[in-house]
Amino acid sequence: MKLFYSILFALIFTATAGFAQTNPKPNISGVILDEAQKPADYVTVVLFKAADSSVVKTAFTDPSGTFNFNVREKGSYYYKASSMGYQTLKSKTIVLTADNQKADFGTARLIANTQNLKEVNIAVTKPLIERKMDKIVMNVSNSAIMTGSTALEVLQKAPGVTVDQNDKISMMGKQGVLIQLDGKQTYMSSADVANLLRNMQSSEIESIELITNPSSKYDASGNSGIINIKTKKNKNGGTNGSLSGTAGYGKNFRGNAGLNLNHRTQKLNLFGNYNYGRNERDNLIAIDRISNGTPDTYFMQVGNSHRKQQNNNFKAGIDYFIDKKNTIGVLVNGYFNHGNETNANNTLIGPSFNQVDSSLITNSLQTNKYNNVSYNLNYKSILDTAGSEISADVDYSKYKGNDGSDYENDYRFQNGDRIRPIRYTRNNTPSIIDIKAFKIDYNVSLNKTVKLEAGVKSSWVKTDNDLQAEEFVNNAWQNDVKRSNQFIYDENVNAAYTNINKQFKNTSVQIGLRVEQTNSKGNLITKNNVVERNYWDFFPTFFVQQTLSKNNQLGFSYSRRIDRPSYDALNPFIYYLDEFTYSKGNPFLNPQYTHNFELSYTLLQKYMLSIGYSRVNDVIAEVILPDAANQSLYQTNANIATNISYNANLNVPVQITKWWQTNNNLNVFHLKFEAPDLAGRALNTGKTSFQFKSQQTFTIMDGFTAEINGSYESPLDYGTLSLKARYYVDAGLSKSLLNKKASLKLALSDVFNISENNLSSAYPGLTYTVHQKNETRIGRISFTYRFGKNEIKPARRRSTGTEAEQGRMKN
């Protein structure tokens, strides 16, 4: 640890040695009041030179309504103040007759915007997709199509994002996406993240940020980038909130309801929300495969499952404004979810697909219960009027889960006679994940054109999974020593980063470096199998943004990233669909490393083309392989030697008429996987594929809109899997009610019920096909009512320290 922090201080010292200086005290000030003569905080104040109206500096008012600038040069100055819901305020001009002279603009009052509601709504409506310098933003809250959907279903509609029938998430064709909630890593396994997103409703989401090449400030995890889901926060002063409810039906009923509350005073901001959801869905899976032998054996498997899930999500917090520069806050959030899933599988076995000599009937019942509570203590201090600040977060999170499974395996001859007595087995898998983390972030303006960011973070994660397997033998349940086991995984990651940003006339350059030290230990208790790792990694980043003209910008970025195996991927436990189909973890997985390059071009501030290249070494991929000894097929994760990816993404928003606008996204990519020895065979796959998504928005009348969203994903190869094309169409309607305090939304997902997953083997010598069809055509109706004060005063954004760890946890 001493060596780790020595490197941190060396990085910061090196970065600041040429720029270090004492921050000057402000010499120009003023006060902004709202129409009720109360201090107006978080008002944007821009200072101009009177001579040429050039921008000098920008600041925000604090809770007392005060703003400050430090200006060294004499001359004439004025400011403009703006805040949503108010007219732009222009001040009188003041004159500084000497350098460092002090001046006071005095007190000014904002005037409420008197435009009619129709004009105001048009002005503040955000498009579904926004392109920003370092990310793509999908605004969820105003979309009728998103109504009543889960977060997982919303993600599927994001440009460049794919969610398959097994809830695996990929971006720009690549898996390994880091999922964050409000800038906070979830520290959960991929299966648990999927379950969390499946239980989160679209009514809780404000927007989704897609960051394909993050800077050194972010955790180095995520080879294909970061998806940050920003939840809604009440931003109004006084007491306000909202109530929402959604009912949906496909083959099964589903629904959710939520309450959001916020109370803000000059010194305190209290906030909280609670959401309840109930979700049911059916799933069909069919697998045809050939097991090589003398002779070959043919398996034809059909399975139906029915899942029921109930979830309770909550968040509560308080911000205390110590003074105009210092704020401390406490945040508690979590969920209490439970459900069950029934499965009925019938596997026909024979010497060909047309001949059957036996069958295996497998029925199972799986129950689950997941609880998680996370605590965050945060502090933020504004150091000067130039925007320098320091923030700190301390986090603790505890996750408890319990999966139970009961299996009934019945072997029969073709005539229906039993080959052997029914075999009964059951599993109970309690799991605990304990997470502790802290981080400190510091940023400072060294001068007018140079900014420094630096920070440290440490996290400690411990997972404890206990597989208790039993067989029903001689009319009693007995421990199955071949499958029962306990797996404990400990991990400590220490990180330090620094970024230097230099602004030239038309060019912005940022150079960063992140250093991470990892210590991990996986212990398979029963077999006394211990895997320990200790390693250092360096992750440089480089960004340059060039303004060619007012309407043309060019950008380039590079980053090196790491993906550590998820906790469930490391867990070697075996989970059966039936005795011929199962999944298991791999405790010997190594982390994968990625070099990402991206070139981007922006036209007219809205059309953007990006071209990317990445190379992943020791890529972690989901593979389906044969178990020749048991004539079985199993899914696991393995380190494939290399993955090379080329991609191009084009986003084109078009305003066709005043009442019709469209956003179109095309993502073209080529994925190549190479492995000289994967379970005894060489793997070399690659295919050029594309994804196209188009969203149409129609303004029928004031407050009444319609949306149609279509998606097509061409066939692609990913590791040992060859996936067929996927496509769907969604539609929705939205109407404002009760003087725009309420909204009613109708939506129908997968209108033509055509979304399904079909794949086959890309692994040499292995033949199988898989067909999956989830319950995807669902009609929903949603109602939201907003109450309370409407003066908008944004609450500060919160980003906790457990951002990278929870994304590897199970939900």
TrEMBL record:
InterPro entries listed in its UniProt record: Beta-barrel_TonB_sf, OMP_b-brl_3, Plug_dom_sf
Keywords: Cell outer membrane, Membrane, Receptor, Signal
Predominant cellular place of this UniProt entry's protein: membrane
Domain Outer membrane protein beta-barrel: 383-785
Pfam families from the UniProt entry: CarboxypepD_reg, OMP_b-brl_3
Signal peptide: 1-20
Cellular localization per UniProt: Cell outer membrane
GO cellular component terms listed in the entry, alphabetical order: cell outer membrane
Annotated protein name in UniProt: TonB-dependent receptor
Organism listed in the record: Pedobacter zeae
